[in-house]
Please model this.
Amino acid sequence: MLWALGVSNPWMLLWLPAAAIPLIIHLLGKRRRITIPWAATHLLQAAVRQNSHRKRIHHWMLLLIRTLLIISIVFCAAEPFLESESLATAVRRPEHLILVFDVSYSMGYRSDGTLVLDTAKSVARDLLAKTADGDVVTVVSMGRYAKSAVTGAVQSQESLLEIVEALPLEQTTASLPPAIDAVAKAIKSVDGEHFRVSRHKAFFLSDLSTRTWDVPEFSALERLAEVCELFAVDVGADEWGNVAVIKLDIADELALTNRPVEIHARLKHFGSRTFLDGRVELIADGQRVQAVQADIDSEEDRVFAFQHRFTAPGQHVIEARYQGDDLDSDNHFFYVLPVRDSIRVLCIEGGPLHGGQPGEADFLALALEGEESAAEVRDVRVQIVSDGKLNSLDLTAYDCIMFCNVARISPEESALVKSFVSRGGALVLFLGDRIVPESYHGAWHDNALADEQLLPAQIVGLSPVDVYQFDPLNYEHALLEAFRGQASGGLLTTPVFRYWRVEPAADSAARMALAFSSGDPAIVEKKFGQGRVILVTMPASTASRDSETGTPWTLLTAWPSFPPLIHELLAFSIRHDQAELLRHVGEPILIDPIPGRLPGSLRVQLPSGEIGRVETSTGGSPKPFVFADTWQSGIYRCLAGEESSVLSQYAVNVDTQEGNFQRTRQDGLPSAFTLIDASLIEMKLPGQTTTRFNPRDLLLALAGLLLCGDILLSLMWWRAR
Amino acid sequence: MLSERENFDPRKLAGLQGLELRARHIVDGYLSGRHRGAHRGYAVEFAEHRDYAPGDDLRYLDWKAFGKTDRLYLKQHEEETSLYCYLLVDTSASMAYQGPGAPLSKWEFAQCLAIALAYVVLSQQDQVALALFDHRISQWVPASSHPAQLKRLIDLLDNSSPRGESDLPTAMRQFARQSKKRGVVFVISDLFGNIPAISAGLKHLRFKRHDVTALHILDPAEIEFPFDRAAKFVDLELGQGTVVDPLEVRTSYRREVETYLSTVKESLRAARLDYVLLRTDEPFDTPVAELFATRGS
Model:
C-alpha cells in the first residue's frame, strides 16, 4: 500500500522544537536548585527510596505527556494528511464521471497546430484513465443542443476512448442550459438504476467562450450544483485571432444574366492575433472566379467587392472563402442567388385590346420596357394579353403577372394564378373602374383562411372623388426605399382623385407599403407561398374615370414617379426573401408547400451528399415542409421526383458570432463552476483516485486526552505529596 | 534578669556570643537556685565490707557489724569524690548542622549541654572528664573535680569544631579501653549511623560497668523536614548530594524519622541504656534535671 504523507501548513512544523520546552524547563529547574547542607542524609535517602520509583514514573510520564501534547498541537496546526491510491481503491465507492465536450465550431481552432477539441479529448483521456471498475461514465456533447453519447458503467476503457475520439465538431454555438439538462438527466438515470455511486462529477471541457458561458444564473444549474460537482476545464488558447466571413450578398436587387453582378463579402477580424497573407476568394458555382488580398485590422470588419457575370438563368451558388487563419468553419459563406436572363412580365389587359387607345397595360409596358430600342438585351420583357387568354398560357414562363383593371376572375384563372404565386411567381393587381370586387373576393378571399387568401386586403368600396396625395409612411417599406430623399421624383405630388378603399385583415401578413393622405392604403402587399402579391388600389392608366364627372382616377401614369414606381413594384414583387434561402446551422429549412407535392416526394441533399427526409411542420396554413437536419454548413438541395430534379437550393452558414471566442475567466463563470486550467489538471484534479486521510481531528482528540492526563497526573501527584 | 528557663533556652543562648558567655549564663541559671533538684547529684554510697587487716584505717571500722558478729569489718565506699562523669561529645561534621529556624547548631547545643552537665557534676565535687570524638576520640580532658576543670572543658569545647566522619562504635570502644574508672557516661551525639552498631558500641561501655546515657540531639528540621523547595541536600560528612523535592518526600521522611527514633529508643533500651531525645530549639534544663533526678533516686 503506497502512502504519501503531506502537510497542508508546513510552516507550522517550525513550532516542533517547542516540544523540547518541558525538558528544558526540567533541566533548567535542576540547575537552579539550591544547595542545602544536611546531616540526616541516611534518613533522607531512605525517604527518597520509598517513593523514588513512583516519583520517577510520575515525572517521566508528565514529561512525556507534555512533550506529546505540544507535538500533537503543532501537528494539528500543520494539518497533516495521508494519501494513498491503494487505500482509495480499497475504500473507494464508485463515482459518476460526466464528460461534457464543448463541440461548438470555435473548438475547431488550431492553437499551435493542435485543435482545441483534441486538447479537450486528451484531457478526457486523462480523466478516463483514472476511473476504476464500477465507475459510471457519461459523455455529453454540448452544441446548440446537448446529446448524451453514452451513460453506463465502465466496462472497457477502449470503448469509452473510441466514443470520445469519435465525437465530431459541430458547426454551431454551444449552449449551456441544454447541457445542464442533459447532465441532470444522466444523474437521474444513474441514481435511478442504482449504480450506488458516491458522487457525481461533471467536467465541462471548453474554450470558455463568453457566448456559451456568459449566461445569467438559472435554477436548473443551481439544482444541479446541489448534487454534482461542476468543473469548467479551460482547454482554450490564451492568445487567439480569427477572421470570419460574416455576410455575402449582391449590391443590386436582381441578378440578371450577362450583366456584371456586384457581390459584396463582408469579413470581420476577431481577437488580437494578426494574420499575414490572408486572402478572400469568390467561388461561383464551384469555380473560383476571383481572389484578393484580405488585410483586416484587429476587431475591424471590411467589405470586399467582387463582380461576376452569370451566363445562365436559375439559382446559382456563390461562396466567399477566406484563407489564412486557424479556424476554418467560419471562413466560408454560402449564398443562393437567383439569376434571371430577363424579367418576364405578363400583363392582363382589363380593357379592350387594340381598341385604338392605349390600354391599361400599355402604360405598364412602356414604363417597364421603355422605348423600343435596338438593344439586344432587355431586362424586362412584357407580354400583354386579354383577360380571357390567361388559361391558355404557361404561367411558369413568367416572373410576374400584372392584372390591369381586370373586371372578373374566373375560377380557373383564380386557381392558376394562385398556383403561380405559390410557386414563387409575383402578382400585381391594379384596381380600376372595371373591377368587380365580389369576383376578386370570391376568387382569392372569401371561403379561405387568412393564410390562404391571395388578396392582401378586402376591397370595401370606392373612395369619394377628391384630391389625394400619397403618404410614403416614412419610406419604411422596402418598396419605397428608392424614393427616400427623392422629392423631385414626384411621388408625393402624384395626383389621385379616386381609388378603391381596401382593408387588410388584422391578423394577416399583409403590409401597407404606400398610403393615401386620407389614411387609406394605396399599395398593400403580402407573401403567398413562395411568391408575393401586391395590391394597388388605383389603376395604372388614365382610362379609369369617374362616371359622373369624367375625372380620371389618377394621373399617375403621366407623372414622373410612375416608371420608377412600377419598376420598384416589379423588383419587389419578384425579389425572394433571402431569409428563406439563407439559414444558420441548426435552423430548419422551411419549404413552402407545393400544390400536388407531398413531403414524402421531396428529399433534401445535404452538403455531405447524404439524403434527408422532408417533414411536414405542425404550424402554419398551408403547412410548410420542414427539413431540420441542417447541422452542416453548405448548400442543401431540395430534390423531387425519381430524376431528383432540383427544386430549390438553400444556403446554410455558421453563426459567425461563435467566431468571436472571447474567453471567460473564473469571475465570469456561473458561480456553481470551479475553473480548472487544463495544464494543471494533473495536479488539481479532484477526481483522482486517491483518498486523503486527514488525522487532524484525531490529533485534536489526542491533545485533549493528553491535557486531561496531565491534569489528572498532576492532581494525583499533588495529593500523594 | 532572665526569666525562668531562659538561661537554658537555646534561643537566648544563641543571642550570646561565645561559649564562655553562654557557660556563665548556664552557671547562673544553676546558681540562681532554680534548678536545685538538679543539684542533688550523687551521694556517697557504701559499697561492701572486708576483713580488717592490721594497719587499716580504724575510721572505717563498722562497729555495728562488730557488735553483731564480734568480727572486725572495714567499710568500703564508692569513690564519689571520685564519682566519675564522662562527657563524650560527638564532634563529627553532622553536628555542625543548624536548620532553618533553629537557634543553635547541634554542636553549639551540645557544647551548652556538656557545660551544663559538667557544672552540675563539678558542683557536687565530683569529677568530670570530657572526650570529643568523631570516628575516634580526638580530644580528651581527664577527669578532675578541680574548680578549674570547668574552664578547661569550656576552653576545649570552644576551641573545637565539628569535622570528620562519625564512627561512634569505634570511639566508644576506644573510650572503653581508655577509661580506667567506671563512671557515668553521657554520650552527647546525633547518633547518625548504624543503629545496631551504635547500640553495640554503647553497650560495650556498659560492659565496662559504666552507666551510659545517650543524649540524642537533633535539629527540628531533621525531625520535621520543613523544606518546600526542591534542593540538593549535601551531606556534611560525606559531601554527597541528594536532589530532593521536599514536597514529594516529606511524608515519607517523617515516617523514616519516626521509625529511626523508635528504633534508636528501643535499641538502646533493650541494651539497658538510658536515652533522652533533645531538640536544639527547646531548653535543655528540664530534661537534664529529670535525668539527674532519675539518677539520684
